[in-house]
Amino acid sequence: MKRKTSESKKHMTGSGQVRLQLTSMMDMFTIILVFLLKTYSTQGQLINPSDDLTLPTSLASKVPEMGLELTVSADWILVNGKPISRTSDALDMSGYIIPDLREELYRYAREAERMESLYGSRFTGRVTIQGDKNLPYRLLMKVMATCGQSRYPNMRLVVYRKDEL
Amino acid sequence: MTPRSSKRKKRGLEEMATNITPMMNLMVVLIPLLLTSAEFVKLSVIELNLPPVERGSEGEMLSQLPEENMKTLDLTVTITDKGFFISSAMAVLAGEQAEEPTIPLIRNADGIFEHDYETLSIKLYEIKQRALGRFPDAEQIIILGEPSIVYQTVISTMDAARFININGRQEALYPNVLLSADIL
């Protein structure tokens, strides 16, 4: 009986108030903090994945860079978020060049060149392609051929990184 | 004498409890900060560089023709809905029967047929061992697809052609992947 009182007294302050036990909470916080610090990347996200498509997964580990954003979802082909052409139209079309996309890419290329001459930011011809994982190969070829012919020959295919097994 | 010693004991106990309030403040600030900036989905890119098209030569062929006097390997993987065909400038690697793909589809755990990327990697590794040093384009592979092959299959094939896992170690196979437009 006497022992019990002395133990409960440990958590009491002089004024008789009960002190909160924070040790377990601190443990939890420390673990969460270590986990978050480990997954923290200083670079941030340079590419925002679009909502209406699922990117394919790949083992590739190259870090994304900035570039013109070309998105090919199941319904639309978009350049920097602006719809250019319906995917089904591009698929049905004969030939490898998608005219609407080509025009838009040329416009961006011209703008980038103007920027190059004005401010000295180099035009790299770099385009990041986000494609839905169920796109047929035929459409992929058309999009890539159009990019290659419209002064954007450096293509980056955006994928989800699959960690090693 | 006795009350004095008890007082000292009490004080010692109170000193044992560390003041962790500043630490808690730090945690409460740091954790939301890190949570909001955390990336849970990792993105990466596959690089594909076409030879730049010169101005005024629009509508010409996409790829440059290889030089005539060089004997090249032209290793090609053709993806069809029946499996992979591996071929080079000289010959097509035959499957178990004539007209069959080099690597047919396999049945996965769910009983669905899918492409056999592992066998493809191993086959390409064997070819690389033999071709190394004998051809100028032993680092390069051409991937061809049937029009209806889906994007994910193309990407997985590229992965299988770029790297192989040998005993948990990743080795490069053919870092230069080219995509070709048509089945010739």
Provide structural commentary.
The complex is a heterodimer of chains A (165) and B (184). By secondary structure, chain A is an alpha/beta fold. Chain A folds into 2 domains: 2-39, no CATH class; 57-161, Nucleotidyltransferase, domain 5, CATH 3.30.420. Chain A has 5 helices and 6 strands, in the order ααββββααβαβ. In chain A, helix 5 links the parallel strand 5 and strand 6. The radius of gyration of chain A is 27 Å and the shape is elongated. The relative contact order of chain A is 0.17. The model of chain A has no long low-confidence stretch (mean pLDDT 79). Chain B has 184 residues and is an alpha+beta fold. In chain B, the strands form 3 sheets. In chain B, strands 2, 3, 4, 5, 8 and 11 form a 6-stranded mixed β-sheet that branches. In chain B, strands 6-7 form a two-stranded antiparallel ribbon. In chain B, strand 9 and strand 10 (169-172) form a beta hairpin. In chain B, helix 3 (117-131) packs parallel to helix 4 (151-162). Residues 5-9 and 54-68 of chain B have low confidence and may be disordered. The chains are: A alpha/beta (165), B alpha+beta (184). Chains A and B meet through helix 2, strand 1, helix 5 and strand 6 of A and helix 2, strand 1 and helix 4 of B. Strand 6 of chain A pairs antiparallel with strand 1 (43-49) of chain B, so a sheet runs across the interface.
Low-confidence stretches of chain A: none
Global Rg of chain A:
27 Å
Distance between the termini of chain B: 105 Å
- Write the H/E string of chain A, N to C: HHEEEEHHEHE
User: Order of strands across the biggest sheet of chain A?
Assistant: 1-6-5-2-3-4
> Structural class of the secondary elements of chain A?
alpha/beta
Shape of chain A: elongated
- The total count of strands of chain A amounts to 6
SS class of chain B: alpha+beta
Helix content of chain B: 25-40%
Average pLDDT of chain B: 72
CATH class of the largest domain in chain A: Alpha Beta
Strand content of chain B: 15-25%
- C-alpha geometry of chain B: elongated
Q: What count of domains describes the coordinates of chain A? A: 2
Q: What is the terminal separation of chain A in angstroms?
A: 58 Å
- CATH architecture of the largest domain in chain A, by name, is 2-Layer Sandwich
Question: How many helical stretches of chain A?
Answer: 5
